[in-house]
Amino acid sequence: xxxxxxxxxxxxxxxxxxxxxxxxxxxxxxxxxxxxxxxxxxxxxxxxxxxxxxxxxxxxxxxx
Length: 64
Description:
This protein has helices spanning about 15-25, 30-45, 50-64. By secondary structure, the protein is mostly helical.
């Protein structure tokens, strides 16, 4: 068994949920990434039932 030469202190910090939520909400970079992801999902990849049916018909026509 190996013994550490430098004593490591125990982590006695408690998780502060309020501070965590505040830091997530006020983090502009994170909010920008989330907004970009939502925009990608809504505008670049818009599949509704009509579009899916058109794609299925086109694939069926290509297959013969």
